[in-house]
Design goal:
alpha+beta, Ribosomal Protein L22, Chain A, 3-stranded antiparallel beta sheet, 3 helices, about 35% helix, ribonucleoprotein, structural constituent of ribosome, Ribosomal_uL22_sf
Length: about 110
């Protein structure tokens, strides 16, 4: 069974978040939480919150055990970009793009053989 959690419009660029998301794909969910707790990048905080939400969804909504879950997908998508302008020399303006992202984490239960 698959369980997912989505965190939308995170105020960080997808490029910065993808590096962190790649490091936890395929890991057991408990181990991924432990890794993210000590990961040196700020994006790990956002991904950790989404992973914790997915684990809570699995336990409360689907009655699954935390130890049986692993991270099947950790996808980072680009969201809307907030556009601002900063004054530059001689009356011109320079664009500032404040990028946002969507984080989607899918957990799956290990199949017993």
């Amino acid at each position: 069974m698959q369980v997912k959690a989505i965190n939308r419009f995170v105020r960080m660029s997808a490029f910065k978040l993808r590096d962190v998301a790649r490091s936890i794909q395929g890991m057991p969910a408990e181990q991924a939480l432990a890794v993210l707790a000590h990961y040196p990048k700020e994006g790990a905080r956002h991904i950790r919150r989404t992973l914790a939400s997915a684990l809570a969804n699995a336990e409360n909504n689907h009655s699954l055990h935390r130890g049986d879950l692993f991270v099947k997908e950790a996808l980072i998508g680009e969201a809307a970009t907030i556009k601002r302008f900063q004054p530059k020399a001689r009356g011109s303006a320079g664009p500032i793009r404040k990028r946002t992202s969507h984080i989607r984490i899918v957990l799956e239960q290990k199949e017993e053989k």
